[in-house]
Amino acid sequence: MHKEVYCEKELLAIIVLNSYKKPGISFFTSNDLSQQLAYMQHKKGHLIEPHVHNMVKREVHYTKEILFIKKGKLRVDFYSDEKVYVESHVLEAGDVILLASGGHGFEVLEDVEMFEVKQGPYAGENDKTRFESVKTGEIKLAE
Q: Which InterPro entries does the entry link to (predicted)?
């Protein structure tokens, strides 16, 4: 199973739950996103032909992140580009999320281990603008 999180018509995130299973290759992203996310399931003996990736000049305007939750529970709070709170989702071990646009914040609900993948090079504090998080009583947990 996977979910898409929107603020009006803007895609904020794609969440792929650990329970997602489908033979072959499933892309969750459109071709125009600067970060691509796919799930692959192949049977023993399946071959993926050797290949190299060609040099293709790309222009990236915003950092996109993918988080792989290895262990624990993490609440993700989503915000519009204008820093307005939208909703929250809980991620668990095995879940994957692509943070596509808008803002986001996190609260660790159980000790968490995760991997983060994003475009580089990292620009330090120039890479992000911090703002105040949603108040605990205002959290809208989505299903």
A: RmlC-like_jellyroll (IPR014710), RmlC_Cupin_sf (IPR011051)
